[in-house]
Protein 1
Amino acid sequence: MTARLETTLVVAQRARRVRRAKAVASRTAAYVVVIAGAVVLLVPFFWMVSSSLKELQDVFAYPPVWLPIPPQWHNYLDAWRAVPFGRYLANTVFVTVLGMFAEITSCTLVAYGFARYSFPGRNALFFILLSTMMLPYHVTLIPTYMIWRNLKLLDTFDPLVLPAWTAWGPFYVFLLRQFFMGVPRDLEEAAKIDGANVLQTFAHVMLPQIKPALLAVAVFAFRGYWNNFLGPLIYLNSMSKYTLTLGMYLFMGGVNEAPQWHWLMAMSTVLAVPMLVTFFLAQRYFIEGISLTGLKG
Amino acid sequence: MESGIYLGTLARYLLTFVAMCLLCLGVYGALRLARAREETAAGYALITPWLAGFLVFTAGPILASLGLSFTSYDLFNPPKWVGLENYRWLFSDILDFWPSVKLTLAYAFLSVPVGVAGSLLVALLLSADIRGIGIFRTIYYLPAVLPEVSVALLWRWIFNSEAGLLNAVLGPIFRLIGLQNPDWFGDPRFVLPAFVIMSVWGVFGINMVVFLAAIKNVPRVFYEAAEIDGAGSFAKFWNVTFPQISPVVLLQIIMGIIGALQIFTVAMFARPTSAAGRFMNQLVYERGFLQLRMGEASAIAWVLFVIILALTLLVFRSSTAWVYYEAEVRK
């Protein structure tokens, strides 16, 4: 009797052990795949930074040099001085700050209108706003170019920043509207009873409630203006007005010129640093924005 | 320092702001005068910036570019009506136009399914409770954080035929199967795979995070019910997870297609061999702004617009067969 009980116990123990081993195996497999994926995604980053710190002869070495010793930090300075990147940085900051401010302001007001006021035609207009997301930018490009040409504003920053006052990011309006709709109406009514006017209610009651959405929009707008290439490409002619992306295009050289890869990787890294910093600072809002809209930066 | 290049724009920037405020007030006043309700007037006043921008920078230009596509226009002489000549010329252009349509469509049809399926797979893996998952999620996200310009230059360097990292790492394997190192962006046969690899690397993290959020939202009860019914892992995925997250998959596919068909910046910086053809948006830029053939460029842009509309509609139509909306069943 006791012997049989013992066998049962042993069998049960063995089964438990097998189950645990299986769980450990599947967990290990998951880790292996996840780590392998992370390595594949990270190696290009490492390669970018490592290439940017190499001497010219190591850049083309075979087998590849993984760690440049000693690191050639002066590559960054050399690349930065090869083209007036300081001026391009100033231009990019100017365009980005103006564009972001106008875009966030106008999108917030429009989103508030769509979220909190009911008026005839509202749903149809919101549907139109959403469907402009499908519109290829190039289809409006030439007539828009003609507008700025007729206004004699080609080769200025105007075409890059003035339209930002017209809430031209349908994603941003959508995201902000979602958040506004989530704010309980009682809050506004309480403010009204306390004697706040429309603007006071908006600024002191509504805006703090949608802070995560505002930050998400700020991150995306920052990325949008910082990385804009097509706009500067067609609107800016004078080299003194180039932005960083257009400066990179110039720096990349003509078709026949052999690219200086250590310099190009240095500048690619420089261009990426503000994006990486904002990502780490505002990761939560970034991911929240993406999960809500499916928007890619 | 020449600060003059900023001051003019700054002045017009502030002026635009004032003008926009006045326009909003004007809309409000006009609607009130026309005896509209207070709420209607305020609502329209608030959305006025968008409405104005939509008319001036979207609706107007779309119609204008349709009109331009029937003309011959070089920016300096007034547009000349040529009827369907631009389209006839394009559709018979087997040197530039058809290869670019083919390249653009092939890119979208390859990169979107591979990107979506791959990231869905990894999202399923990562949805398991793994310690330190937060760090992995951040890592998976990083490629999407890089600027397009950096991505294109970085991959052009990795794909470099002589000293590129990819050929250095894969070279021994290629030699083992008796193949030569491919010249990626320099060889028309490898341009498309190179772009697909680059794009999948870039969007992987974004798609994955979106899928991960969707998978986490599937109620646990459904899995418990499935387990009681004796479902295995695959059955659980196919009958529970996938139907539940299918609306998100649809959204990612549609946004992916719209994005892929509009590829421009990356292609301009990756600079593949011209023998592989150009993407449609590159052709629009080249015809319009380098050769000043604005009519033809508008026609190409419109063809791309129609392709995007048609594909989006097609995917939406097909979605009734595979996308599951809970709200519809509950009704």
Protein 2
Amino acid sequence: MVNPADNVAVVLEEVKKGESVLVRSGGRELRLIAGSDIPFGHKIAVKDIPKGGEVVKYGEVIGRALSEIKAGDYVHVHNVESLRGRGDLKLRRE
Amino acid sequence: MVSLGCESVSAERVADRIAGVKEVEVVRVLDKGVDKAVEEGSRIVERMIKDSMKIKRSGVDLSELKLAIKCGGSDFSSGIISNPVAGRVADMIVEGGGTVIFGETTEVIGAEHILMRRAVSREVAEKLNGFVKGMEERVIATGVDMREGQPTPGNIRGGITTIEEKSLGAICKAGSSKLMAAVDYGDLVTEKGLVFMNTPGREPEALTGFAAAGAQLILFTTGLGVPQGHPISPVLKISGNPETCKRLGKHIDFDLSPVFYGKESIDGAAKKLLKKIIKVASGEATRSELIGYEDPVEIYITGPII
């Protein structure tokens, strides 16, 4: 975890579904069960995130959840959308 | 300068400006044809190389250094290892009285509020914000979903999900010092300290902009291991992804794997990297020069090409 306020962490090893993952943040340690395979360097949810909820990394909002995310789930482009540079949203509104 | 001989930008006008600062010769392709132009150019370059060997090195203070910092081929390791290390180096150079230039306006989207807080004046903060808004508005005006281009497929494969995440990791390379100025693409930078230049993220344009600013050296963080160099300002590449450093070591000048494995602190690595930067600034060749990867070179075009 980059920041204690984050709800995602970066996995420093490839993770297989069902594996136990140890996440360290400052002095705290957290154990999660991976909900699916997670590639090296990708993100795992350390808390539940509701659909439409904010995904937080570096202590800042990095996107919005497209579907419900449970702690231990793989977090990436399949379930997170960016909120910036969205020319497509502007077209949809008009 | 190699000029076609009939283009819109006058080679003579550009050469006149250069002549005020250093020696320049112009070769025109339409004068006698391509092969004669190559012959003439080669003769001129040979002579210039011989003359340049007579130049003697002399000691210069760190405050004379203008270092540009770029990130390219970013992955998860960029925001947590190589950019933070670059940021510590940036702080050390600024503390030493030097200049650090960074840019890539697209990759500030989502993190601009953090940089604006560090601006030395309201004017600088607003200028930076203007650049970022301008970049984002240009994307939105075309009706394009930026996710089609930024983050890139390489970034996504490397674990970066959104432009916000990419930007938050990218700005780490700027360290923590005050933002002294925000300049437009290609402007010469005369300020000391940390300066932002409005550039795209794309390498050929961004590196050229930094060279035009007067950066003598470009520090380049890469997660994926891109080979980029530049013919005017040498590019020094660092990576915090141990798999990249193993597989593409021939592209990487400074390996940050010890930080990944917890064997070295970000500060410790930055001190060693600064020593390497001083060596390169004193003449040591970089990997991109050794492998000969210094193309392409582009100038940022914001208008239509007609």
